[in-house]
Records
---
Amino acid sequence: MARVAIVTGGSRGIGQSISLALQAHGMNVAANYAGNDEKARAFTDKTGIKTYKWDVGDHWACLEGVKQVEADLGPVDVLVNNAGITRDATMLKMTFEMWDEVMRVNLGGCFNMAKAVFAGMRERGFGRIVNIGSINGQAGQYGQVNYAAAKSGIHGFTKALAQEGAKFGVTVNAIAPGYIDTEMVSAVPSDVLQKIIARIPVGRLGHAEEIARTVAFLCADDGGFITGSTLSVNGGQHMY
Ligand code: CAA
């Protein structure tokens, strides 16, 4: 039987590449999305990957959304917590709403989704959870106290849950991408972005597929001894 995977934020950006990579590895993928119905429909038409709309920051919506995926595809074996947003501003300009929204979606989303699938994975004796952190959660980033805190929280969340899942065949790992050529990064002012690229030893932005292949690696059936780890994929920008 094909493994069933949920990828949050799975119809665009890095998430889209992750959905495709898991599908290429023979999984039955459900791509969650929050906003753009038209893009999600186009993605399903093109790839055959089913898309499901809910806000990962909404606890109850996650429980309902996962129930629907399980009714359609079967029990969830693999969860990729990829959905994330930025609300960049320096501390002086950052509002509480900008802080709260990023914490709610980026970090709260990991809890909400893991809560929805963890008990079942544990009962069945198999699970793969991969949380997408960030280089900016490891190193910090000017203008991102909200995002850096949430992503840093993801790394702690990963190590704690990995300890709870280990005995039950459930691995929990994180990936810390550097700057990847997605819409999120292209929103960074171009003069700032040029300075960032100049600090990447590989000399370029990463590609979404370069993150996706590391997710597939961690989600493989024979990956049972890798848990609680953070895999940095950042072109050498931050060596941790
Ligand atoms: N270090 C030190 N000083 C910096 C700085 C830095 N990295 N970036 C900006 N500054 C300074 C500027 O030089 C400027 O100083 P002066 O006033 O003395 O000239 C001051 O801070 C204000 O800078 P801005 O004019 O840029 O201020 P702003 O309010 O218009 O914008 C900002 C601030 C929103 C933080 C903007 O600089 C920005 O968007 N920076 C990029 C943040 C970033 O990297 N986000 C990553 C998004 S992608 C992502 O998050 C994915 C991932 O996981 C990697």
---
Amino acid sequence: MEFDITYVKALQVLDSRGNPTIEVLVVTEGGGYGRAIAPAGASRGKKEAVDLRDGGVRFLGMGVSKAVEAVNKVLGPALVGLNSSDYRLVDKKIVEIDGTQNKSRVGGNACVATSLANIKAAADTMGVPLFTFIGGFKARLLPTPLMNIINGGVHAGNELAFQEFMIIPVGADKFSEALRIGVEIYWNLKKFLKERYGPSATNVGDEGGFAPPLKRVEEALEALSEATKLAGYSLDNDVLIGIDAAASQFYDEKSSKYLVDKRLLSTEELLSMYLDLTDRYPIAYLEDPFSEESPAAFRDLRTSLKNKTLVIGDDLTVTREDLITQYLRGGFIDGAIIKVNQVGTYTEAENSVRALLSSGGKAIISHRSGETEDNTIAHIAVGLETGLIKTGAPARGERTAKYNELLRIEDYLGDEALFAGRKPLTK
Ligand code: PGA
Ligand code: ZN
């Protein structure tokens, strides 16, 4: 049968940080093929699927030849003969063969590259774009981009505690126009940072945003506001602000305090800081505001913020349907980040998206800080009609690969294309 998998082959390639990662090729009997590359996070949640790495001295221990071998010798042979379009069955097989909760046997990296290569091969066999394979012919909603244009935390060599400062261009009626607004603000931010802090302030971090030597969170928010005004846009009307604090990274477990702006803050003090900042800036989106060990603080913040700002889990929820459902039902979060490599297979990620959307939650399809030219997440966002995507600054090839694919999808859909705009940012 034309959808049957005939060939699976893995290869070690490189990601955007120069670390080895795994690429998998899946070919079907009908001549369809799909290639996918595993991304890699730097600020990972404790409950994420783990990547299989070689250790030793080659590539400083980061090689993935064991994961490549796991695909070539174990996963691949077990998938040959299965119907690629029955991706739930293919992914079930991957999950069964690995047999661990965190994909540590064959490796989350091996699982994700294989699972995504399979849906791409199925779409290719069917002769439709991946987003159509995923969502059918009704899928035509382009997502609102959350564009991380100032990098801090473990993604940058500066002293900003919070990891990501994002602009969210909502005042457009097309994706391409929203992207243009984002680009114009990015360039005005570059000018602003150069004038105020000198040329080295325009060096970029892991996700393509600038990594200026700012010391306080508020300086970064001020820079975003200034850049937005310089570009001729108005905060609130055209552009909203998003923050991914990635707070597990600056949480000190011993003292139970957070190191922000050179001060050690208690959970209550950090909560007050968020309330103050959201009062003074149009912050519509707050991801991982507290450590993943402190879910109750997410709920307290969400209650105090009322309807102004979405509270989103990432390290807290790690794309797992059980955790997402638990925290969404309990009122801890308004939604969750979806990273296929946090769980290991497309099916598990899709289940999490459906669980979120069917209960009024927000699902944000997301890249990792270590990325590649693989643009699959653009198709997942459109196919599952999440209305939201996080894929970094509009710069660096591994980030623009996703934006450019969204531009292609919008162009392909023509008048049929819809743009999510402000709606997904409101409760
Ligand atoms: P990571 O960060 O890919 O380095 O884990 C991204 C995020 O926290 O959203
Ligand atoms: Zn995050």
